[in-house]
């Protein structure tokens, strides 16, 4: 569990470093048969901002948690990038794409923690 907490914390730091906003952590640990234990979700302002946040999260998770993503998807168009760390998945969205897919609310029983934006 501590490794997941370190990874989630490092991902949040990477997002905040590049001014990602509307950060939420979805805790799926009490729900059976989910793809991961935690999702970290945030918004970016543009495709280049999505890419910058991806780079920052990757750097912070390597440096702070010793973890590289197992898979990354979405870098071609940067509307939504998903970084798969097995038990933790980090999602970086453009706001319209996030609204369309609404993954924040896929699991109604999940605990959702909102992380304050850094100005």
Written overview of the protein:
With 119 residues, this protein is α+β, with helices and mostly antiparallel strands. It is 35% helix and 27% strand. It has three helices and six strands, in the order αββαβββαβ. A six-stranded mixed beta sheet has the order 3-4-5-2-1-6. Helix 1 packs antiparallel against helix 2. The chain is globular, with a radius of gyration of 13 Å. It starts with a helix and ends with a strand. The mean pLDDT is 94.
Order of helices and strands: HEEHEEEHE
- Number of helical segments? 3
Radius of gyration: 13 Å
Q: Could you give a short account of the major beta sheet?
A: 6 strands, mixed
Q: How many runs of DSSP E, i.e. beta strands? A: 6
User: Looking across the biggest beta sheet, what order are the strands in?
Assistant: 3-4-5-2-1-6
Spell out the blueprint of helices and strands.
Elements: H1 2-17, E1 21-27, E2 38-43, H2 47-65, E3 71-73, E4 80-84, E5 88-93, H3 95-101, E6 111-115
Brief sketch in words of this structure:
This protein has 119 residues and is an alpha+beta fold. Helices cover 35% and strands 27% of the residues. It has helices at residues 2-17, 47-65, 95-101; strands at residues 21-27, 38-43, 71-73, 80-84, 88-93, 111-115.
């Amino acid at each position: 569990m501590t490794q997941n907490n370190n990874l989630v914390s490092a991902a949040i730091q990477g997002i905040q470093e590049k001014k990602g906003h509307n950060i939420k952590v979805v805790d799926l640990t009490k729900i059976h048969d989910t793809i991961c234990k935690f999702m970290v979700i945030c918004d970016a302002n543009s495709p280049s901002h999505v890419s910058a946040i991806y780079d920052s999260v990757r750097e912070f998770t390597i440096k702070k948690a010793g973890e590289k993503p197992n898979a990354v998807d979405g870098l071609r168009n940067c509307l939504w990038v998903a970084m798969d760390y097995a038990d933790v998945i980090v999602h970086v969205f453009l706001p319209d794409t996030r609204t369309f897919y609404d993954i924040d609310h896929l699991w109604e029983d999940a605990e959702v923690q909102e992380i304050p934006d850094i100005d």
